[in-house]
Design a protein that fits this description.
The chain is of the alpha/beta class. Helices cover 28% and strands 22% of the residues. Strands 1, 4, 5, 6, 7, 8, 9, 10 and 11 form a nine-stranded mixed sheet that branches. Strands 12, 13, 14, 15, 16, 17, 25, 26 and 29 form a nine-stranded mixed sheet that branches. It starts with 8 loop residues before the first helix and ends with a helix. It binds oxalic acid and manganese (II) ion. The site of manganese (II) ion has 2 residues, from loops.
C-alpha cells in the first residue's frame, strides 16, 4: 500500500506533513496482512527486540524485553490539552495547548531519522459498526505495528471503510533517531522525556518517547477511553473502562453485564470466568473497554472496541484464568516475562513450581535464589481475542450486545460486602463515584492505602471528573426503565486474622448468579443504607465448603464502619470540585443520615 491507496485528502496531507516533520528514512503503509506481520516480526528479531519462542511450544510467538525505564503507563507524563483548564478538571494533568504543541513539534522534529515510518489505519470496534471509530496511528516502532495488529483491526480493510471520512490522527514516535552508521539498541526510546498528549478539542493524540503498552498502542487508553470519553459525553453515549461478559442460565436466558474495576482487581479473570455452579455458562465480549449506545429499542448496547487482550501476565495461570492461558498459547507477543531454557515463557504464579533456571526479563540468568522477580510485575501478553475459547458468539456483532447490569468493585479487606445492589440508578452512580481499592504490593507506595477511583476511570477520563459523573446521571435519565441495574462487589474481604473470606475466581459465578436472579426478580435481598444485600438463603453456596459465620461476615453491613468513611468521601468529593452533580452529593448526605438513623 501507499498514499495512492486512499483518496482521503486529510490522511494524505497529514502523512506528508508528519514525514516532513519527523524525516523518516522511508514510509510503510500497513495493509494488515499476515505476511506483513511476519516480516515485521523478523525485523524485530534481527534488531534484538524480539526473541522467537520455541515454535513447538508457543507457535508464531515472540518475547520482547523493554528498556528498564519504559515498563508501564506513565500517568504523570500524560497530559490533556484544552483551551480552558476547567474542562479537564483537578484529576487530570492539564496543559495549555499552544505551548505543548511547540514543545511537541520540537521533540518530533527529525525524531524518526534513520527509521521507517509506519502508517496504521485502525478501527476501534468491528469494521463498519455504527459504534466503531477509525483512527490512523503513525509510528516509528515495528513493535507497535505488531501489537496494534493483535489489539485492533488494521490495514486495507479499514482504509477502505474510512473512505474520505474523518479519522483520529494518532502520532507516535519512540524518540530515538538513528544517525547514519549508528548502531541501534534492542528497545529504542527516550525514557527520560515521555509525553502522552491528548487534544480532545481537535481531536488528536501525540505520544513521544515510550514504546510500551498504553503509551504507544494509541487505540487503547488514549483513544478508546480518554478521547472517546469526551466524544461520548458530547454525543450522548458511554466509553467506559469495563469488561463485558455474558451469562447463560440453565434455562438458557442470556444476561450481559459490564464490570468496572481498578487495576489489580482481577478484571481479565472475571471477563473470562469459568463458572463453578452447574448449568451456568459464561462468555467474554471484552476484558477492558466498553463503548455503549442507546438504540432505537431504548436499551443500551455495548461493543468491545478492541480485538485482543493486553493482559498482565504475572498471576495468570490455569487456576486463575485457564481461558486466557489458551488465548495466549500461540500467535502472541510477550513483553518483559521470563524465558525458560526450552524457549518458552514463564512468569510468577504461572505454574505451582518455579523452574530451576530462567532468563529474567533483563535477559540475565535467574534461579529461585536470585534477588527480585523473574518477570516484571507489569509484564504483559498480547493475544488475539479470537483465540479465547469462551468468546461470546456476538462479540463481533456490530450492533453490540444489550446490557442488563453493571458491576463496580474494588479490593477491600473490610467494610464492603461481597455483593449488593443499588436501589436505583442514582445510588448506583453514587457507588461508582466512590469506588475505591486498596493499593497492593505490586504498586509503588503504601500497601493497603485506599485509592478512590470513580468508575475505574481516574487515569482514563479525558475531561472533568465532575462532568463525567454528571454524564452518568444524564444517561440514567435518558435510559429510564431500560437502564442497566447497578451492583457493587468485593471479592477481597478478610476475617479478623487476615484470611480471605471468599475463594474468588470461578466461585464468583455464585455472585453473578445472584445478580442475574435479582434482575429476574427471583433472589431475595435485605434493605440496608448502602443498598440491597443478599439474604443468606438467596446466595447459591451448594458444594462450597465455607462456614455460615464466614458468609454472614461476607455480607455484613456495619453502620459504624461506613460512617468512618464518610469524612474521607467528602474530602474526595471536594477534590472533584463543584462540578460534582448535586444529586450525587445528596446521595452521600442521605447515606450518612440513614447510617446514623
Ligand atoms: C490496563 C490498565 O492496562 O488498566 O488495562 O492499566
Ligand atoms: Mn484497563
Amino acid at each position: 500500500m501507499n498514499d495512492a491507496s486512499t483518496k482521503n485528502q486529510k490522511l494524505v496531507s497529514w502523512v506528508k506533513e508528519v514525514a516532513e516533520l519527523c524525516t523518516p528514512a522511508d514510509i510503510h503503509w500497513c495493509d494488515g496482512s499476515q505476511e506483513e506481520y511476519d516480516s515485521m516480526a523478523q525485523r524485530l528479531v534481527d534488531a534484538g527486540t524480539f526473541v522467537r519462542l520455541n515454535p513447538d511450544l508457543r507457535p508464531n510467538s515472540y518475547l520482547a524485553r523493554s528498556d528498564t525505564g519504559d515498563v508501564a503507563r506513565v500517568e504523570d507524563r500524560t497530559f490533556i490539552c484544552t483551551t480552558n483548564e476547567d474542562d479537564v478538571g483537578p484529576t487530570n494533568n492539564w496543559t495549555e495547548p499552544e505551548g505543548m504543541r511547540k514543545k511537541l513539534k520540537g521533540l518530533f522534529t527529525g525524531s524518526m531519522k534513520g527509521r521507517t515510518m509506519f502508517v496504521i489505519p485502525f478501527s476501534m470496534g468491528p469494521v463498519g459498526s455504527e459504534t466503531a471509530k477509525i483512527g490512523v496511528e503513525i509510528t516509528d516502532s515495528p513493535y507497535v505495528v505488531c501489537n496494534m495488529r493483535i489489539m485492533t483491526r488494521i490495514g486495507s480493510e479499514v482504509l477502505e471503510a474510512l473512505g474520505e471520512d474523518d479519522f483520529l490522527p494518532c502520532l507516535h514516535s519512540i524518540g530515538a533517531p538513528l544517525e547514519p552508521g549508528q548502531e541501534d539498541v534492542f528497545w529504542p526510546c527516550d525514557a527520560e522525556n515521555k509525553y502522552i498528549v491528548h487534544y480532545p478539542e481537535e481531536p488528536s493524540i501525540w505520544s513521544y518517547g515510550s514504546g510500551y503498552g498504553g503509551n504507544a498502542l494509541l487505540g487503547k487508553k488514549c483513544f478508546a477511553l480518554r478521547i472517546a470519553s469526551t466524544m461520548a459525553r458530547n454525543e450522548g453515549w458511554m466509553a467506559e473502562h469495563m469488561l463485558i461478559l455474558g451469562l447463560t442460565s440453565p434455562e438458557k436466558k442470556k444476561t450481559y453485564i459490564g464490570g468496572a474495576f481498578p487495576s489489580a482487581c482481577g478484571k481479565t479473570n472475571l471477563a473470562m470466568i469459568q463458572p463453578t455452579i452447574p448449568g451456568w455458562e459464561a462468555t467474554c465480549v471484552g476484558d477492558d473497554i466498553a463503548w455503549m449506545r442507546q438504540k432505537a429499542d431504548g436499551k443500551l448496547y455495548a461493543i468491545n472496541p478492541e480485538a485482543g487482550f493486553f493482559g498482565v501476565a504475572p498471576g495468570t495461570s490455569e487456576h486463575s484464568n485457564g481461558n486466557a492461558m489458551t488465548a495466549l498459547a500461540k500467535n502472541s507477543i510477550f513483553t518483559n516475562t521470563a524465558l525458560k531454557p526450552n524457549g518458552d515463557i514463564w512468569w510468577e504464579e504461572m505454574t505451582e513450581e518455579t523452574p530451576p533456571e530462567l532468563e529474567d526479563w533483563h535477559a540475565d540468568k535467574w534461579t529461585p535464589a536470585s534477588e527480585g522477580k523473574a518477570s516484571n510485575p507489569n509484564a504483559r501478553y498480547t493475544a488475539p481475542a479470537s483465540q479465547c475459547p469462551v468468546m461470546d458468539p456476538e462479540w463481533e456483532n456490530p450492533e453490540g450486545v444489550p446490557m442488563s447490569a453493571f458491576i463496580f468493585g474494588g479490593r477491600r479487606s473490610n467494610v464492603v460486602p461481597l455483593v449488593f445492589e443499588a436501589k436505583n440508578w442514582l445510588q448506583g452512580v453514587f457507588l461508582g463515584s466512590i469506588m475505591a481499592s486498596e493499593t497492593t504490593a505490586a504498586a509503588a507506595g503504601a500497601v493497603g492505602k485506599l485509592r478512590r477511583d470513580p468508575f475505574a476511570m481516574l487515569p482514563f477520563c479525558g475531561y472533568h471528573m465532575g462532568d463525567y459523573i454528571k454524564h452518568w446521571v444524564g444517561m440514567g435519565e435518558k435510559l429510564g426503565d431500560n437502564a442497566p441495574r447497578i451492583f457493587y462487589v468485593n471479592w477481597f474481604r478478610k476475617d479478623a486474622d487476615g484470611n480471605w473470606l471468599w475463594p474468588g475466581f470461578g466461585e464468583n459465578s455464585r455472585v453473578l448468579k445472584w445478580i442475574c436472579e435479582r434482575i429476574d426478580g427471583k433472589a431475595d435481598a435485605q434493605d440496608t443504607p448502602i443498598g440491597l444485600v443478599p439474604t443468606l438463603e438467596s446466595l447459591d453456596l451448594n458444594g462450597l465448603d465455607i462456614p455460615e459465620s464466614d458468609v454472614s461476615e461476607l455480607i455484613a453491613v456495619r453502620a459504624e464502619d461506613w460512617l468512618q468513611e464518610i469524612p474521607e468521601i467528602r474530602e474526595f468529593f471536594s477534590t472533584v470540585g463543584n462540578q460534582l452533580p448535586s444529586q450525587v452529593l445528596a446521595e452521600l448526605d442521605s447515606l450518612e443520615a440513614s447510617l446514623k438513623g
